[in-house]
From TrEMBL:
Keyword set, alphabetical order: Glycosyltransferase, Transferase
InterPro entries: Glyco_trans_9, LPS_LOS_Heptosyltrfase
N-terminal signal peptide: none
Pfam families in alphabetical order: Glyco_transf_9 (PF01075)
Superkingdom of origin: Bacteria
Name of this protein: Glycosyltransferase family 9 protein
Organism: Bdellovibrio svalbardensis
Amino acid sequence: MKILVVSLLRLGDIIQQEPLLRGLREKHPDAEIHVLLNKQFASIERLLSGVVDRYFTFDRESLQRGLGEAEFNILWSYNQLEALVNQLNGQNYDQVLNFTHNKLSAYLIGAVTSPDKRGLYQDNGKFQGLENRWLRYFNDRFSGTQKSLFHYIELLGNSFDIPTPKKALVQTESKKKSKVVLFQCLTSDVKKNWGLDNFQQLKRTIENGLVDYKVSILGASFEREQLSKVFADDDLVICDLVEAKAHLQNAALLVTGDTSIKHLAAQIGTPVVEIAIGSSDPSKTSAFTDASRILTSAVPCAPCNHSQACTQKSHLCADDLSVDQVFAAVWDQLGGEKPKKASQVRDFERAVWSLYLNRGHQEIEPLYLQAAQKFNQETSNLPEILVESKKKAQQLNSWLERAERALPSRESLLAKKAVQSSELAELIMVGQDILRSKQDDAGYFQNFLESLVGRFSHPVQIYDRVHQALEEVRELIEIRNNLTRYLEFLSTEGAYYATGIGQLSIGGFEETRAGLQRTDEQSVLQRRSRELETFE
């Protein structure tokens, strides 16, 4: 079996995809896996040894020059692209996976011959490949500043059915003995820089407060001049990616912004303190590891858009994170302190959305109990979460009912050539109320809001788009209510067992010398059957 993975992204994104490639290798151990990437990132081959069998490169910069510069023949870029496509088609791929998900990759995959294309691709003038709900969520949530409940790796792993467990902390002997803390101070975007002065002060704080530790500054050759303005030459570790990987393997900790180095550290299992500011959105692209601690700003403008400069008079999100806060995170990481669990309400919403997104290709009913049991095992305050869940459900239902009442009928819009803004005033008012409330963090109404601002050629399209978005909301609320009922049942059952009632046999009373106890495996299965019947 031959598989082509298309990854026409930036360096950090490609490094971040390492768990996906390893998961693909695990799923297809005998397959020949090829990767197509941008030529300027061909050096990544040295970091992914043993995972990928062959690399092909896409020379995007030369192709763009060929289209825009006078010294190139007008057909040069076309001929280069045709040669690449012919080379790929000569491989006779059994499967092609699009990890990139932009129009360029879609057109390119459209030209590659394969019986099994997954992810976005172009065919007969139309974009295909978004039948999978996970892929649609990924396509909707990873452009701009839309919120996502799932990490980039989680989304693509679920989209392509690739196992992607998070990297666990690797405590090798060298790391146990190491007293080196590495800083990666500079990022590819000035908005994501915490500031060299802050890093300099943090270095002094660490070395004064933790006298056994030495801080070194990682940097590429083109960053040397800027780093030298603040740090001594002896503190600098100027290196390429392969050398950086070796330094990370021996480091006790990495402190970094949103960089490719943090993904490299996640691969290795080196603990990370990540400073996520500016356009960095840790919910989407943080270091994919359990050995990380993420610091974010509380300012309302963050995270901002990648493509725009900072709109504030000063760098508010950087100013919002003090050196003491970052040092506290460093202290906890070096001391092995377990990070506080993120919002368990967010975990509940993730469970709801997972059930919804899996519904496209699985029977959902058997998944309810599994999801409820998993969530129940991982939460410490289930009763409070259930109270919050019911309260949020009332708000969601209220918005849904108002939107459905405000939506004009399809028949009335079908008869119109144009629609007056007054006819949609109440519908728009609902959307404004949702936005102003800032209560839809999970994005139940995101597609509804986008349907209100989309372009349309005929008024009936308003109904079709809004109605479809509201049907999604209704399905999500139904799943949410069902999951809540399962959790309520588990919560009640837990209370019974806590008071000793759980020691009673489900199949009847059985006297034993040890007292009353539950019956054998058959009774447990009968009980499970009753559990399922309760919620049908």
